[in-house]
């Protein structure tokens, strides 16, 4: 309907004025299309080699769609919308979905791969050299186009040919000093580069023997090995040493009757297991409220403190009688311009009791990061120092947007400077800055670096080493998920979902309040 | 307009990366065995002959490895690429292996083995009896896991007591002697600290372990084969509590030998600045120590008077064969026959002076650098750092308990809390 109207409007106006074709226009078009084509050319061969036809089709369809979109003169709004939408999908929606889906698995150390990979790893890892068997010197050779191993027993110097069918004696072979076969009738001996080129085949070839199989071990040796553990698909179990080990699909391990499991596991779906663990594990739920309370305080103090300090400085510099503002501004921006990683580490060392600058400067002997009260004050102080230049910058910008007439009018009307600030400047500032304050809060709520690089969550009370006085939810759960049990991505994802929900709720409430405020002042 | 074009390009890149990632994940299970050969044969066709061998190592070792890698490459007609991985090497290797973009050979510490094995990331390495005999027993023990050799060792390192012989001419026979000497020097104003051993706010299990062991403490029980037994965590045992009590006596409220203000960042520098007479550290400290410009000596960490031996952890730097590598035959060949070569071991030593694992190389190195031999000697009573994955659960709770007692906290309570924390994380 709307389209028709649009078309009708076009015809009424006669021929639409042709858009001017500038160089920039052509270049950008060509660039977009070239990139699309390049990606297709880059990604297509591996996908085709892999046999992933669905992905290949999707890729081609996407490339064709993009090519069409930017070649046609129609769909102008889509030309602007598509990049943003793709960006949204790739950088927002996909990571969130991926995190959520990971939260339902046991993905982590010991459960990274799938079951066939675990079985392969178990079998390969259990291959032991057959007792008493020789360490054969290996020479790769070809007989009638087929790869064979020429094996020399180092003790008896007897030469045998090993192929997929088994071992057969070879007569008339000439053995060199290194134990390698130099030539043998009926065989073409492969030189080192030739053998290296057939590395895949060599590592695949298994010569069956009575006790096990002979496999190449590098290019110059072969040993007879026997797998101590063998997977049996009929019982879905691994037989051998300590077994049988039955597959436990709920845990992603092969377990035996004693409850032990083989080291190599695989990734399985654990349902809400990770979420229930977050809620029921006493080491998490028991400390949650305390950590959450401090986390909230830290985020509020960081966002609020930096705002108040940044605004105060901005107001001082905004005063019309202020001189040398440029110099001040440069000096104030410095903490913001320095890499925060390095600065956090420097601050950590400055708080050191015996070697730190702060105690030396003030002649005190405070174990700053060793007591909960001072450690909390220290991390907030550091965060304040790192964060206020940003607030100073944005407040300066917002202040310049407020007409001076307003404050002048207020003072003419007899308002004190404080009253004028409170009733005129601050509300107008907040309209512009509240969204920034909320995002600053959300950022500081998860400000992992500020804690991890200074106090590492400590100090830790001796009675409960799991949670430290300055631990935020994110540093605390990071330790739970990646510290003790190796990497547990599934569990970490579940925690992220919880934290995401918390921050989302707080931010949503705050934005709702902002909207009301905007209605009043805007 | 141009800006938008660039934005679009970025989106496209992201989209295609996604597509590739999705297929890599999806294709992994069923096509993995068939995909590997097709992929590499297409890659090798234009290359010389034998394809490519990829080695990942940390920055220090890349330069030393290159000439040998090239020599190996020309001998076997392959291209050998040595790639530098500078951070989180173990995690990077695991993730890349999982995706199929990992190397053929990885260089790393032996205590990764447990985790690498449980993730199916490495294959056993088959060394001949002769090759095994060329290494000291402790190095072979370190790279053996579940009865299998999983790596070729190239450097052995452990901590020892390094002392400034200007300040302390005689090697202390016991920890008590060491503390007495350190306190006397401090009282005389010659040094600022009794002992330079990093504790920091979160403790440092690695550096304090010899003293803890001498006090009778233990982390794990042992299995019938003599390996650490993850089912028997002994951090909270009565003997360990006694050891924690000894640490408390050495701590801030006691002798002041152990302090949380001494950290990994400042302990070597403080010693090099002659502010303490004793340093407990490893070969990696020697560069800074030498810059201090004073005579020093290296001896084993002493034990308590009448205590158990002060056994340091021994770490073994090793070469692993990646299970998901594309060129495993060559990788095996390189690791088993090249790394065990004396010249390679010496070149690696020159790039980063850690005592070579190969006995023959160590003997040659010792002639020009006595420190290497002294460190080796100091580590003789040590034992390999546990490679079992469960060790990851120990470090932090143990360290926190250590820091707590050093600050004067109750040993029994700290040990019990650490034990509880370890148990609960091992349960999951």
From TrEMBL, chain A:
All residue ranges annotated as the ABC transmembrane type-1 domain in the record: 292-510
Entry keyword set: Cell membrane, Membrane, Sugar transport, Transmembrane, Transmembrane helix, Transport
Compartment(s) of residence: Cell membrane
TM annotation in the entry: 21-45, 51-71, 80-98, 287-315, 327-347, 377-403, 424-443, 489-511
Keyword flag Thylakoid: no
Protein family membership: Belongs to the binding-protein-dependent transport system permease family. MalFG subfamily.
Role noted for this protein: Part of the ABC transporter complex MalEFGK involved in maltose/maltodextrin import. Probably responsible for the translocation of the substrate across the membrane.
Name of this protein: Maltose/maltodextrin transport system permease protein
Organism (species): Nonomuraea roseoviolacea subsp. carminata
Top-level taxonomy: Bacteria, Bacillati, Actinomycetota, Actinomycetes, Streptosporangiales
UniProtKB/TrEMBL annotation, chain B:
Keywords: Signal, Sugar transport, Transport
Superkingdom classification of source: Bacteria
Signal peptide stretch: 1-19
Pfam family for this entry, one: SBP_bac_8
Entries under Gene3D superfamilies matching the protein: Periplasmic binding protein-like II
CDD domains reported in the protein's UniProt record: PBP2_Maltose_binding_like
Homology family: Belongs to the bacterial solute-binding protein 1 family.
UniProt-listed PANTHER family: MALTOSE-BINDING PERIPLASMIC PROTEIN, MALTOSE_MALTODEXTRIN-BINDING PERIPLASMIC PROTEIN
Name under which the protein is recorded: Arabinogalactan oligomer/maltooligosaccharide transport system substrate-binding protein
């Amino acid at each position: 309907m709307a389209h028709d109207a649009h078309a009708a409007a076009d015809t009424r106006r006669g021929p639409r004025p042709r858009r001017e074709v500038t160089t920039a226009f052509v270049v950008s078009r060509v660039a977009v299309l070239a990139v699309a084509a390049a990606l297709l050319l880059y990604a297509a061969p591996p996908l085709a080699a892999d046999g992933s036809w669905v992905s290949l089709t999707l890729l081609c369809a996407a490339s064709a769609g993009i090519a069409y979109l930017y070649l046609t003169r129609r769909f102008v709004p889509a030309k602007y919308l598509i990049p943003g939408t793709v960006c949204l999908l790739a950088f927002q929606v996909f990571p969130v979905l991926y995190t959520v889906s990971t939260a339902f698995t046991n993905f982590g150390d010991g459960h990274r791969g799938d079951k066939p990979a675990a079985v392969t790893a178990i079998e390969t890892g259990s291959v032991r050299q057959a007792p008493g068997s020789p360490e054969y010197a290996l020479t790769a050779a070809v007989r009638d186009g087929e790869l064979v191993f020429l094996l020399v027993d180092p003790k008896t110097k007897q030469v045998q040919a090993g192929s997929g069918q088994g071992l057969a004696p070879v007569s008339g072979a000439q053995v060199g000093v290194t134990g390698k076969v130099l030539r043998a009738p009926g065989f073409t001996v492969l030189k080192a580069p030739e053998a290296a080129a057939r590395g895949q085949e060599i590592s695949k070839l298994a010569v069956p023997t009575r006790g096990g199989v002979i496999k190449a071990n590098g290019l110059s040796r072969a040993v007879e090995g026997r797998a101590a553990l063998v997977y049996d698909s009929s019982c879905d179990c691994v037989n051998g040493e300590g077994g049988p080990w039955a597959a436990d699909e709920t845990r992603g391990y092969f377990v035996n009757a004693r409850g032990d499991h083989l080291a190599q596991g695989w990734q399985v779906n654990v349902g809400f297991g990770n979420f229930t663990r977050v809620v029921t594990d006493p080491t998490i739920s028991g400390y949650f409220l305390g950590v959450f309370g401090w986390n909230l305080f830290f985020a509020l103090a960081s966002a609020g403190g930096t705002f108040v300090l940044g605004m105060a400085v901005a107001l001082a510099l905004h005063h019309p009688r202020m001189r040398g503002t440029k110099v001040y501004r440069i000096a104030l921006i410095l903490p913001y311009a320095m890499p925060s990683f390095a600065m956090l580490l420097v601050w950590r060392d400055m708080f050191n009791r015996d070697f730190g600058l702060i105690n030396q400067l003030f002649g005190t002997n405070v174990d700053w990061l060793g007591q909960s009260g001072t450690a909390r004050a220290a991390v907030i102080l550091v965060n304040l120092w790192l964060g206020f230049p940003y607030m100073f910058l944005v407040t300066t910008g917002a202040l310049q947007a407020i007409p001076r007439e307003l404050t002048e009018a207020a003072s003419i009307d007899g308002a004190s400077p404080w009253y004028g600030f409170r009733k005129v400047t601050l509300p107008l500032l907040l309209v512009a800055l509240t969204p920034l304050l909320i995002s600053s809060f959300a950022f500081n709520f998860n400000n992992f670096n500020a804690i991890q690089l200074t106090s590492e969550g400590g100090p830790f009370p001796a009675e409960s080493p799991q949670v430290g006085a300055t631990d935020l939810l994110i540093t605390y759960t990071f330790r739970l998920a990646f510290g003790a049990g190796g990497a547990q991505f599934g569990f970490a994802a579940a925690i992220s979902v919880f934290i995401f929900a918390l921050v989302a709720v707080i931010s949503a409430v705050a934005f709702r309040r902002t909207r009301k405020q905007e209605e009043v002042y805007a | 307009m141009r800006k938008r074009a660039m934005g679009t390009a970025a989106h496209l890149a992201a989209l295609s990366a996604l597509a590739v990632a999705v297929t890599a994940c999806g294709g992994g299970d069923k096509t993995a065995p068939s995909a590997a050969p097709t992929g590499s044969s297409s890659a090798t066709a234009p290359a010389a002959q034998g394809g490519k061998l990829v080695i990942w190592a940390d920055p220090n070792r890349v330069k030393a490895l290159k000439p040998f890698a090239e020599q190996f490459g020309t001998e076997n007609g392959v291209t050998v690429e040595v790639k530098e991985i500078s951070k989180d090497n173990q995690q990077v290797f695991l993730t890349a292996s999982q995706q199929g973009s990992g190397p053929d050979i990885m260089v790393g510490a032996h205590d990764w083995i447990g985790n690498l094995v449980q993730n199916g990331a490495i294959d056993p390495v088959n060394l001949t009896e002769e090759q095994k005999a060329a290494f000291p027993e402790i190095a072979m023990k370190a790279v053996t896991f579940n009865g299998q050799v999983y790596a070729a060792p190239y450097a052995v390192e452990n901590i020892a007591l390094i002392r400034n012989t200007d300040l302390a001419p005689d090697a202390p026979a016991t920890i008590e002697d060491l503390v007495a000497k350190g306190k006397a020097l401090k009282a005389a104003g010659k040094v600022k600290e009794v002992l330079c051993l990093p504790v920091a706010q979160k403790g440092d299990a690695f550096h304090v372990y010899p003293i803890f062991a001498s006090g009778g403490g233990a982390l794990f029980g042992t299995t019938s084969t003599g390996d650490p037994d993850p089912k028997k965590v002994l951090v909270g045992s009565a003997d360990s509590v006694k050891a924690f009590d000894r640490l408390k006596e050495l701590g801030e409220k006691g002798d002041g030998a152990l302090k949380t203000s001494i950290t990994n960042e400042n302990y070597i520098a403080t010693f090099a600045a002659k502010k303490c007479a004793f340093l407990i550290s490893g070969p990696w400290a020697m560069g800074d120590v030498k810059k201090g410009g004073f005579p020093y000596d290296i001896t084993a960490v002493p034990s308590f008077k009448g205590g158990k031996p002060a056994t340091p952890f021994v770490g073994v730097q090793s070469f692993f064969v990646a299970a998901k590598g594309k060129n495993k035959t060559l990788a095996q060949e390189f690791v088993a026959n090249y790394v065990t070569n004396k010249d390679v071991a010496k070149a690696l030593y020159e790039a980063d002076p850690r005592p070579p694992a190969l006995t023959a190389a160590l003997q040659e190195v010792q002639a020009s650098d006595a420190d290497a031999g002294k460190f080796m000697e100091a580590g003789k009573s040590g034992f390999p750092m546990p490679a079992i994955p469960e060790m990851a659960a120990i470090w932090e709770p143990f360290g926190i308990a250590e820091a707590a007692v050093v600050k004067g906290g109750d040993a029994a309570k700290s040990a019990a809390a650490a034990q509880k924390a370890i148990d609960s994380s091992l349960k999951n």
